[in-house]
Amino acid sequence: MSVHTEITGLLTRLAEAWNAGDATAYAALFTEDADYITFNGMHSEGRAAIESSHRRLFDGLLKGSTMSAPDGRAKVKPLADGAVLVVSAGGTELAGEHRASIVSFTAVGTPEGWRFASFQNTRTSLPGTGAAR
């Protein structure tokens, strides 16, 4: 199986965990020491922090939100043996409002399979307007 196919599968599992509101499954796709930076600059350090913050979001502000699975056009760029840069369109939808983003990840090979070691989300549209920035 190609690295691109494996990474697309990892992105699909990320969307599935988000759509299920499952913070544990979502965080499990990250390394223990992952860095997670949101569109507004919040920085979570480590899988436990990612799980905790997403549990609050899935139970509160983002309850019922959905994330689209990747469409296969994610850029997967090798960085070193067992490490790739992933750049993809992203975004979520809540109550009919789509929040488009471009997201980047560093993915690394681990004994458990590929996991995300870092994440950065940058919004490409303003919430409530659908307008590009």
Could you walk me through the main structural features you see in this protein, from its secondary elements to its overall organization?
There is one protein chain. The C terminus is likely disordered. The longest helix is centred in the N-terminal third of the chain and has 17 residues. Strand 6 and strand 7 form a beta hairpin. The chain has 133 residues and is α+β, with helices and mostly antiparallel strands.
What structural class results from the helix and strand content? alpha+beta
How many domains would you count in the coordinates? 1
CATH topology, by name, is: Nuclear Transport Factor 2, Chain: A
Number-wise, the strands total 7
Beta-strand portion reads: 35-45%
* Cα end-to-end separation: 37 Å
The CATH architecture name reads Roll
* Mean pLDDT metric: 92
Uncertain runs: 129-133
Helix content: 25-40%
Q: What's the CATH class, please?
A: Alpha Beta
Question: Any idea what the radius of gyration is?
Answer: 14 Å
